[in-house]
Amino acid sequence: MISILFLTTFLTFLVVRQYRKARKLPPGPISLPLIGNIHQLVYHVWKNKGVVKALTHFRQTYGDVFTLWLGPIPHVSICDYEISLEVFVKNGNKYKDRFLPPIFLHASENLGLVTSNGDVWAEMRKFALLSFRKIGVGNNLIEEKLLEELNARCAEIDSDSVNGKSVVHTSDFFDLTVGSVINLILVGKRFDDHNKEEFRGLKYILDSTADLFTVFDLTVPVWVLKRFFPQRYARIMKLQTEIYDFVSREAAKRYEMVQSGEYNLNSEDPQDFVEAYLVKIEEEKNNNMYTMKCLKHVIGDLWLAGQDTTATTLVSGFNQLVNNPEVIKKCREEILRLTENGTRSLKLKDRAESHYLNATIAEIQRHASILNVNFWRINHEPTVVKGYPVDSGSVITAQLGALHVNDDIFKNPDEFYPERFLENEKLINQVIPFGIGKRSCVGEYIARPVLFLASGSNIEANQKKVSDVW
Questions:
Q1: What's the CATH code, domain 1-94+372-403?
Q2: C-alpha pair distances (Å), 255 with each of 129, 190, 258, 378
Q3: Cα angle at 469 between 315 and 334, to 5 degrees?
Q4: Cβ neighbours of residue 3 under 8 Å, at least 6 residues apart?
Q5: 219: buried, middle or exposed (CB in 10 Å: 19+, 13-18, 0-12)?
Q6: How far apart are CA 374 and CA 77, in angstroms?
Q7: Which of 10, 53, 383, 437 could bond to 48 as cystine, CB 3.0-4.6 Å?
Q8: How far, in Å, CA of 15 to CA of 303, rounded?
Q9: Percent of the chain at pLDDT above 90?
Q10: Using one digit for the tens of pLDDT, what is the confidence trace for 226-240?
């Protein structure tokens, strides 16, 4: 009898506590103590065949700002651009910190760019942006390297052709091309016939890590994994270490050469990101933020943030273009006009006049929407979003996948229609595949020029020859 009374009292306490907390948050489905809305989210993901459509269902039911409880933690989702702009740009300082899975924080030790918060994140982001500018990312450097890379890849395809025809696996082609450009920017080394296997080895490790993590791994405290699932914990940590060691091998070699006097750093004109970072290490020897250990994590994060998302977007774009030949025709006509009938290569300086190509790339990114569920941010103080109170300790994000198919913003969102961005020029700003605000993806500064030049150059090349593409 006492146990029944105790259980009833405990459950009543949980229900009342949940109700009081929910009153301080935007609307959402009725949540249960302890499990929240997990059961409803799983059901709608299954029913609607995807997380984006499930989130769209909640948006249509509860509005552009709604709350889902994932276990005992409320998650506030924003599916509107203007509200996201107000929250994450105009009031960005309130939402600088990411809500990170415990295992990520444990593995990164709050180092790097993606899985860090506070002063370390702010310093590394500032350094990365300044270094990209210094080594020419976004202008001549990346243009030159990407065009060289595309020409080299096309030459390889031509050499393998039979009777003038080639079979190209688009995912392999774009994976290697993007990976090679990123590696050039970071460590000054491309992947060619002699070291392609290095890239394939890295890609295998990255894919293995992505396949390994489950919702369970990302939510439970680290001590639970260590104590009750030691083999799984060991495997996760082993793969993470392998990734960071692999991508930073060239940096480690360079650092040893600097220490031995075999390599002289050029502080005025660093050749790549690693050289810029090593210069910083030498300049700030007493700053414990600039260490080889932190460099490992920064390089790993830039790889993870840039390679897979950019390559996947290019593959998605290729498939969209194949299914919409009229779009290819319009892009090609514009590119020929800009390149003087194809007598020169497409350049980054042409972006300002590439209106239809820019619209096409924006539509590709909107459809690809690689980050279906965006990284969550923590609010450390009570705030208001679209008139709704949001209590401190909540987590909040702009749900990019649901935002990009919001039919109040993008009419007929399932249709591939680049003209929508020409009919409403302001609409292109509401495609935010790299996130928004202070925690938007740093890899954007590499990805945008790569997407422009790779997409434009491939459309231009298709004028000259047709390949069988798988």
A1: 3.30.43.20
A2: 22, 19, 5, 36
A3: 65
A4: none
A5: middle
A6: 10
A7: 53
A8: 45
A9: 38
A10: 999 999 999 889 888
What is the rounded CA–CA span in Å between residue 158 and residue 405?
A: 39
Query: How many Å apart are CA 394 and CA 376, to the nearest integer?
Result: 10
Alpha helices for 261-399 (secondary structure H): 273-283, 292-322, 325-338, 355-368
Domain 100-325 in CATH 1.10.287.40: no
Alpha helices per DSSP H over 160-195: 170-187
- DSSP letter string over 451-467? HHHHHHHHHHHTTT---
| Pure H helices in 93-139 | 102-108, 118-135
- As a whole number, the mean pLDDT across the chain is 86
Q: Is-same-fold flag (1-94+372-403; 100-325)? A: no
Give residue-wise pLDDT tens across range 85-131.
Answer: 999 998 888 888 998 889 988 989 999 998 899 999 999 999 999 99
Q: Name the more confident of 158 and 243.
A: 243
Q: Are strands 65-70 and 468-469 parallel, antiparallel or unpaired?
A: unpaired
Which residues are 165's β-sheet partners? 162
Domain ranges of the chain: 1-94+372-403, 100-325
3-state secondary structure of 317: helix
Helices 355-368/444-461 angle, 10° precision:
120
Flag whether 441 is marked binding: yes
Of the candidates 301, 372, 287, the one whose C-alpha atom is nearest the C-alpha of residue 107 is 301
Per-residue pLDDT at 254? 94
Backbone dihedral angles phi then psi of residue 97, each to the nearest 5 degrees: -85, 140
pLDDT at 138: 66
Distance CA 14, CA 248 (A): 48
For residues 332-358, give the mean pLDDT. 91
CA distance linking residue 358 with residue 60, whole number of Å? 30
- Distance of alpha carbon 337 from alpha carbon 16, whole angstroms: 67
What distance in Å separates the CA atoms of residue 115 and residue 11, rounded to the nearest whole number? 36
Per-residue burial over 83-115, b = 16 or more CB atoms within 10 Å of its CB, e = otherwise: bbbebbeeebebbbbbbbbbbbebbbebbbbbb
Average pLDDT over residues 39-57: 90
